[in-house]
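Page 37, continued from 36.
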């Protein structure tokens, strides 16, 4: 493509303020800038820390990427200083304040857009920031939504909304068959995303509905997936909605060198990642279980103990990431007083901060990934060719479990039946969804020898090459990124034809 024309293009990226949304959008921004298109990422000071150094490295290597900061309106939104992300909210009662803060950001973002040069051609924004719909109208810019999930998920939501089948049952345990899918997918009503089972908080429900309706006025959707993974779902979603969809993933694969993999998302500069690599180097291929329940998790100490006892009972080596501040002191007391940490020294590593997940998953010693099924983690496990042990809790996680277990057949369920929506943990007693035996059994179904296990591993391994090829030149995701660039050139009247 003509480089003068490309240098006239300027994409602005506005990620939602949570790691699971920021990290893939930063990856996409880097991929786009590699195509000589100018990209500006807008975020707040504390959120920038998790990816700033990787952007600086991109700039040093000549990439036309920039980072611009807008202040987070803590005081105005009633959120304590030091918290600028859903991950660090001190209380889930502040959820509506958080969305208020995003609305307040509209003005500073608009002021920034006025100053950017060359003038932006397009805004790529997370679907959870509805004020960007107003910004794009004001600046007459096409707004491309970034949807942090996959096309399976998009199609399920679309078909549920249009069929209203979820309204035909009231019992949360009733099974619903999601209509119009290539596979027969059954979900309990309670496992559906919260938009289908709204709680009593009217303000929050209104925000969710505003997010949903703002999707309809977007120019198109960028999805972190690839056609060889869920081609049927991509096609069917495009067919039933008529939306423009660009599948450009798996975007985490843009982090090719170990430093990018190790630092991805880490706010601390003092983490010594080599300790994890050394641990993994000391175990045979496919022998270590990696356990991480995402960046936002608020799993109860009672449930975490069951996971711990389950891991212990397998007698297998593991890396277990313990994130989240929810009743954390109680868990720490247990880890120490019960002697768990001491007992399992040498066999298991506990990571109490941020884990270099992409780096860990890429190590040949990893034999399975026990995941909460956030889409980024699910896809990162798939790209690493690792069977998944699925432990969904809320949002799109039960859909992603279906992708792993039923569509790809590379996952095994731990057996979670009930959803505990994010922030509602206090309402569900001790929050124990599965016990230590369930955890042990699921791990044993995946690890070790046996025909069924070997076949599952073979199926999982197949995706390593397919994923890599998708984002390389000639691959479907590479091609889709070219199509996106051409489309925006066309819209802005910059194309050569
Ligand atoms: N992640 C990480 N280290 C951690 C926790 C999370 O690198 O200790 C990354 C993970 O690789 C993924 C993202 O954070 O890219 C989490 O996104 P996901 O959609 O899996 O779940 P969420 O955290 O949004 O629930």
């Amino acid at each position: 493509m003509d480089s003068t024309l490309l240098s006239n293009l300027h994409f602005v990226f506005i990620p939602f303020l949570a790691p699971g949304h920021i990290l893939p959008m930063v990856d996409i921004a880097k991929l786009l800038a590699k195509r000589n298109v100018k990209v500006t990422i807008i975020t707040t000071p504390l959120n920038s820390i998790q990816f700033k150094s990787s952007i600086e490295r991109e700039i040093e290597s000549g990439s036309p990427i920039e980072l611009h900061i807008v202040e987070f309106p803590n005081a105005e939104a009633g959120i304590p200083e030091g918290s600028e992300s859903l991950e660090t909210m001190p209380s889930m009662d502040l959820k509506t304040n958080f969305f208020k803060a995003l609305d307040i950001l509209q003005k500073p973002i608009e002021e920034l857009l006025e100053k950017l040069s060359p003038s932006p051609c397009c805004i790529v924004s997370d679907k959870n920031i509805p004020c960007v719909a107003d910004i794009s109208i004001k600046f007459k810019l096409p707004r491309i939504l970034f949807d942090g999930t996959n096309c399976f998920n998009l199609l399920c939501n679309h078909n549920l909304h249009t069929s209203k089948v979820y309204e035909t049952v009231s019992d949360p345990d009733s099974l619903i068959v999601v209509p119009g899918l290539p596979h027969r997918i059954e979900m309990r009503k309670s496992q559906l995303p919260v938009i289908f089972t709204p709680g009593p908080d009217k303000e929050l429900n209104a925000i969710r509905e505003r997010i949903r309706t703002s999707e309809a006025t977007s120019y198109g959707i960028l999805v972190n997936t690839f056609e060889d993974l869920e081609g049927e779902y991509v096609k069917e979603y495009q067919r039933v909605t008529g939306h423009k969809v660009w599948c450009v993933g798996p975007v985490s694969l843009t982090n090719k060198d170990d430093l990018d993999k190790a630092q991805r998302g880490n706010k601390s500069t003092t983490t010594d990642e080599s300790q994890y690599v050394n641990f993994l180097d000391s175990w045979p291929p496919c022998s270590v279980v990696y356990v991480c329940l995402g960046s936002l998790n608020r799993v109860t100490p009672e449930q975490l103990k069951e996971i711990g006892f389950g891991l212990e009972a397998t007698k297998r080596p593991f890396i277990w990431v313990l994130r989240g501040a929810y009743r954390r002191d109680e868990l720490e007391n247990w880890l120490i007083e019960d002697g768990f940490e001491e007992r399992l020294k040498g066999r298991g590593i506990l990571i109490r901060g941020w884990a270099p997940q992409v780096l860990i998953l890429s190590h040949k010693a990893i034999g399975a990934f026990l995941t909460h099924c956030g889409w980024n983690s699910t896809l990162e496990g798939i790209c690493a060719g690792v069977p998944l042990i699925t432990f969904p809790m809320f949002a799109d996680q039960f859909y992603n479990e279906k992708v792993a277990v039923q569509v790809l057949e590379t996952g095994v369920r731990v057996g979670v039946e009930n959803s505990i929506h994010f922030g509602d943990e206090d309402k569900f007693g001790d929050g124990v969804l599965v016990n230590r035996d369930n955890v042990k059994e699921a791990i044993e179904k995946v690890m070790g020898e046996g025909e069924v296990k070997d076949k599952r591993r073979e199926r999982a391994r197949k995706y390593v090459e397919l994923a890599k090829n998708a984002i390389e030149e000639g691959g479907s995701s590479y091609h889709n990124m070219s199509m996106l660039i051409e489309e925006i050139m066309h819209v802005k009247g910059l194309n050569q034809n």
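The mean pLDDT is 94. Flag for discussion at group meeting. The first helix runs from residue 3 to 7.
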